[in-house]
């Protein structure tokens, strides 16, 4: 009968670590590396990681595929008089894309000559424009100087079902040239558009428009923050960019599956062992948390306390801190000390360690002498010894800094 009691991490390179000696102790006390039982643990996984994409405001805010958000951003860049300082560049790119698709357009007897509409700063943008019969147009661009209107139905994922004839006739009541388009990441069927001989109808993909924006000219004259927003919008909306991401993701998956093929049957056993390890850690942590809290309260030096398991936090799982528990205690001077129970990836200790810092608001500003340092007590020591060693450090912190800069007032 064997029991998993320790998790260690072996450095592979200066910046990466791989689990190498999850240790098993057999009934006769012999310690054997678990990598012999779980060979996938000794594989090199450092290179199997998806590329870190730049921060994207649309994904970060939770609006990656919201059409209303997309329409607002489009409306901003299609308006030549907005503060992006790109003038008519974006609406011109849209017009050129419509012209290129006109061969497959429905309606309109004469080929569209976009050159007659390019370069104008007289375009006005109206979002969710209401028609006479109560319909709503996603984006309506109108130009009184050119007597032209562009109806844009923005479709990220939804089907095309809109009353384009109603949209077009509403615009035709005031403008001579009317272009009615569906703008989407991928081509949509023209059969879904209402046919009309008086207006041009087309489906345009975002990449058709993005490709016609002169990035070099934009970089020279555009507003810096607006250009950054435009790049994030393109990254978020471009079907081509999505395909590049999918290819990269596929390569990452294939590399991982190749590394695990064969020994993958051991994964279940490994995670069962990890559950047992965390069960042991959690039970001991709960006991120690109560004991330490009671002692600190009795001595009148405790302001607050908390405990967190690395396996239950995204930052813990991402960093491999899946076999460690943190017991935190804020002292009356504002200092915070934490007892770490388990194993921290990349550290040589296992069992108990401590970290301390001047304020709970900034847990990364750790004191040098208490930065993930081993505690002077081992797993096999009685709870009283572990509590005593930790409380002694707390009292030392109070003696060194009777009033910490991190102390909370009020």
TrEMBL record:
<dbReference type="Pfam" id="PF14281">
    <property type="entry name" value="PDDEXK_4"/>
</dbReference>
<dbReference type="InterPro" id="IPR029470">
    <property type="entry name" value="PDDEXK_4"/>
</dbReference>
<protein>
    <recommendedName>
        <fullName>PD-(D/E)XK nuclease superfamily protein</fullName>
    </recommendedName>
</protein>
């Amino acid at each position: 009968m064997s029991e998993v009691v320790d998790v260690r991490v072996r450095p592979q390179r200066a910046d990466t670590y791989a689990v190498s000696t999850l240790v098993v102790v057999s009934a006769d006390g012999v310690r054997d590396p678990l990598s012999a039982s779980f060979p996938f643990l000794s594989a090199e996984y450092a290179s199997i990681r998806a590329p870190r994409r730049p921060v994207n405001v649309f994904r970060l805010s939770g609006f990656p595929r919201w059409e209303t958000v997309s329409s607002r951003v489009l409306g901003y860049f299609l308006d030549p008089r907005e503060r992006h300082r790109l003038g008519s560049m974006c609406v011109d790119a849209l017009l050129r894309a419509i012209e290129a698709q006109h061969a497959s357009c429905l309606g309109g007897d004469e080929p569209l000559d976009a050159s007659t509409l390019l370069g104008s700063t007289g375009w006005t943008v109206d979002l969710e424009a209401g028609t006479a019969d109560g319909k709503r147009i996603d984006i309506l661009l109108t130009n009184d100087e050119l007597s032209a209107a562009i109806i844009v139905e923005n479709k990220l994922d939804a089907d095309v079902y809109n009353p384009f004839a109603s949209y077009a006739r509403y615009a035709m009541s005031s403008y001579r040239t009317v272009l009615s388009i569906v703008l989407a990441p991928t081509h949509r069927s023209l059969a879904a558009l209402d046919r009309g001989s008086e207006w041009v109808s087309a489906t345009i993909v975002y990449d058709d428009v993005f490709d016609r924006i002169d990035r070099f000219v934009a970089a020279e004259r555009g507003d810096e923050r607006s250009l950054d927003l435009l790049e994030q919008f393109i990254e978020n909306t471009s079907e081509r960019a999505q395909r590049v991401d999918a290819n990269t993701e596929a390569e990452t998956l294939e590399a991982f599956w190749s590394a695990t093929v064969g020994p993958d049957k051991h994964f279940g056993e490994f995670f069962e062992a990890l559950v047992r390890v965390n069960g042991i850690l959690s039970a001991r942590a709960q006991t120690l948390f109560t004991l330490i809290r009671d002692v600190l309260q009795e001595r009148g030096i405790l302001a607050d306390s908390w405990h967190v398991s690395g396996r239950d936090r995204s930052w813990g799982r991402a960093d491999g801190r899946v076999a460690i528990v943190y017991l935190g205690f804020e002292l009356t001077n504002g200092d915070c000390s934490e007892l770490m129970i388990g194993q921290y990836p990349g550290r040589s200790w296992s069992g108990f360690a401590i970290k301390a810092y001047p304020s709970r608001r900034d847990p990364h500003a750790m004191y040098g002498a208490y930065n993930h340092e081993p505690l002077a007590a081992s797993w096999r020591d009685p709870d009283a010894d572990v509590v005593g060693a930790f409380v002694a450090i707390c009292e030392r912190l109070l003696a060194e800094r009777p009033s910490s800069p991190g102390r909370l007032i009020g």
